[in-house]
From TrEMBL:
This is NADPH:quinone reductase-like Zn-dependent oxidoreductase. It holds the Pfam family ADH_zinc_N. GO terms for molecular function: oxidoreductase activity. Transmembrane segments: none annotated. Residues 10-328 form the Enoyl reductase (ER) domain.
Length: 331
C-alpha cells in the first residue's frame, strides 16, 4: 500500500512516498480502507522528535481517520464489511493514517455520522474526544465563568458548543484575527466575549468584564496564553490543561492559588487498557452530530495522499496558520 513515511526526525523534508506492506488483521481488528486523514499538532511534534515521539510505533504518522471496513477479524462484533467508520487511532493502529489502509481494534471505531463527507468525519475524532472529555470532567454549572484561551480551533469550538448546549452562557475566549473572531462568534459567543489576545492589559480587561475571577479556564494555546489563563482564574479554581505547554510562571501561579489542574489526554485510557472508551465516546459524538446538537469542525482540504500535502499541513500547523479549520487530506 502507499504511505507517507517519516525517514528521520527533523524537517518536513524528511517525508517520502513509499510502498509498505498492507497490514494483516488480528482476530479483534478490522482493516479499514482510509478515505480521509486529519492532521493534529502532535503530528509535527512527533516529526521534530519532541516528547510525543515516544508514542510512535510506526514511521507513518497520523492519528485520526475515516474510511470503509474491508476486512473483519473473527472476534469483531457490531461492524460489517463496507461500513463507513471513523476513529482516533492514536498509536494503537498498525500504522499511522497517512496511508491507504490501517488495521485497528474494533472497539476504537464508531460509525461515520450520516450526511457528512469522509473529510468532515476525519476531522471529528481527536478534537471531539478531547472536548468531550474536558466537558465531562469539568462539570461546569450554568452560572460558572469559563475562559478558553485560543478557542477558535476544532477542540475549542466543540467545547464551546457543548458548554452552550448545557446552558453555560458566560464564556470568554481570545482571537488574533477577524477570521478567528468570526469562528468564535458563529460558535455562540457574543462579540464582547471575544478579546484580542495581543491586547495590552488583557488580564485586567477580562476581570473588568466579568467582575470576578473565572471558575474554569481552558488552555488550548500554551505559552503566554497559559499565563493569562492562570492569572484570571480564581483561588481554588480549575485549570484545564490540553496542551502541556504551560510555562514555569503558569505553574507558580496555579500552585500559589491552590488551583486544581485537569490534564486532558485522550491516550490516558490506553494506559489502563480501556480502549472501548474511544468507540463509546465517538458513538456519543456521532449521535450529537446526527441530531444536530453539535456540528462537525470546519475543514481545510489540503489535497490527496502526497508528500506535498503532508509537508504543507505540517508547515501550516507549525506556523500557527490553521485559521480555525481542521486540516484534512483525502486518500
Amino acid at each position: 500500500m502507499k504511505a507517507i513515511v517519516l525517514n528521520g526526525f527533523g524537517d518536513s523534508k524528511n517525508f517520502s512516498l513509499g510502498e509498505i506492506e498492507k497490514p494483516a488483521v488480528k482476530a479483534d481488528e478490522v482493516l479499514v480502507r482510509i478515505r480521509a486523514s486529519a492532521f493534529n499538532p502532535i503530528d509535527y511534534q512527533m516529526r521534530l522528535g519532541l516528547r510525543e515521539s515516544r508514542l510512535m510505533t510506526s514511521p507513518v504518522l497520523g492519528r485520526e481517520f475515516s474510511g470503509v471496513i474491508v476486512a473483519l477479524g473473527a472476534q469483531v462484533q457490531g461492524f460489517s464489511l463496507g461500513e463507513e467508520v471513523m476513529a482516533a487511532s492514536g498509536s494503537r493502529g498498525s500504522n499511522g493514517t497517512y496511508a491507504q489502509y490501517i488495521a485497528i481494534h474494533y472497539k476504537m471505531l464508531a460509525p461515520k455520522p450520516a450526511g457528512i463527507s469522509f473529510e468532515q468525519a476525519a476531522a471529528i475524532p481527536s478534537s471531539g474526544l478531547t472536548a468531550l472529555q474536558a466537558f465531562k470532567r469539568m462539570n461546569v454549572k450554568v452560572h460558572d465563568l469559563v475562559f478558553i484561551g485560543g478557542g477558535s480551533g476544532a477542540v475549542g469550538r466543540f467545547l464551546i458548543r457543548l458548554l452552550k448546549r448545557s446552558g453555560v452562557r458566560t464564556i470568554f475566549s481570545t482571537a488574533g484575527n477577524e477570521q478567528s473572531r468570526n469562528i468564535l462568534e458563529s460558535s455562540g459567543l457574543l462579540k464582547e466575549q471575544v478579546l484580542d489576545y495581543r491586547e495590552s492589559g488583557l488580564v485586567q480587561k477580562l476581570l473588568e468584564l466579568t467582575g470576578r475571577p473565572f471558575d474554569f479556564v481552558v488552555d488550548l494555546a500554551g505559552g503566554s496564553m497559559s499565563e493569562t489563563a492562570a492569572e484570571v482564574l480564581k483561588v481554588n479554581g480549575t485549570y484545564v490543561d490540553i496542551t502541556f505547554l504551560g510555562t514555569e510562571k503558569t505553574r507558580e501561579i496555579l500552585f500559589d492559588h491552590g488551583d486544581l489542574i485537569l490534564n486532558i489526554s485522550n491516550y490516558a485510557y490506553v494506559l489502563e487498557g480501556k480502549i472501548e472508551s474511544y468507540g463509546l465516546a465517538l458513538e456519543e459524538i456521532r449521535q450529537m452530530i446526527e441530531s444536530g446538537w453539535i456540528s462537525p469542525p470546519e475543514i481545510h482540504l489540503i489535497g490527496g495522499l502526497s508528500v506535498s500535502s503532508v509537508q504543507k499541513a505540517h508547515e501550516l500547523m507549525e506556523n500557527n496558520q490553521v485559521r480555525g479549520k481542521k486540516i484534512v487530506m483525502s486518500i
